[in-house]
């Protein structure tokens, strides 16, 4: 079986213990805070120790899964604590992976930037989380299959009730790409469940949210993210654009499949019509800056991508099938490890 080697290892699990966070819905219980038991050994305590610890892990995984190149970043106390590239960005040219230069495709991590853009517009009073999203759509409308309309809350929690199908989602050539608006109208999935009832991963829903950002802001989605997130976080090696801008093209890592002992290169894979759901290209250190901003409730250096209250709201549980299990925040997925609530993306 072919193994996809276009691999991007990110410390994107953003962890926090939410104390005193505002309730997104008054009736929805938030996860209980549990007493933390401090282990006798806290793990690596400095960069050198962490690097030695990770060296063995990375070497083992890269050998086991035939990974050509990977990158990793760890943040701590509002700073990039450690970042490193492993292996090759280009096997034939023996071009090494460099953590602050080599671009990878993080896939659905892209959605967190879309959800952050949404919450920026919520903060500015441009988006109502509980309004029918059809009020933001001009060229096409979501059919009223069920009495309940789909809202931005449903898109944020993957509960709009769409079927999720992979249909012409990827393209090998730039000339095969269709616009976000055209794809969303032409490839609209069926509504198969009432909204707000069941979580079902929806790439279409995330792309639809990005399209709403585009329509409300009046600028292309890629432009909006660059101006309102990337520039504020000094993410100079990041883009949603396809093809890549000329100043970034040479820094993109090569994707491979591994067959019979040989790494076989593949060209740049375009995300067709669903860019807000997965077309981002970035580096480990750029993603780390985004992590820091969320860990600090929207603040990065002297800049903010979200006001503190908005960031706290974004990290607050918005949906769960049962209060006793993990659910969804505003775009984040909850996970609990060792009684510590974490939020992540990239499923």
TrEMBL record:
| Annotated Beta-lactamase-related domain residues | 56-329
**Entry-linked Gene3D superfamilies:** DD-peptidase/beta-lactamase superfamily (3.40.710.10)
One Pfam family this sequence matches: Beta-lactamase
- According to UniProt, the name of this protein is Beta-lactamase-related domain-containing protein
List the source organism.
Answer: marine sediment metagenome
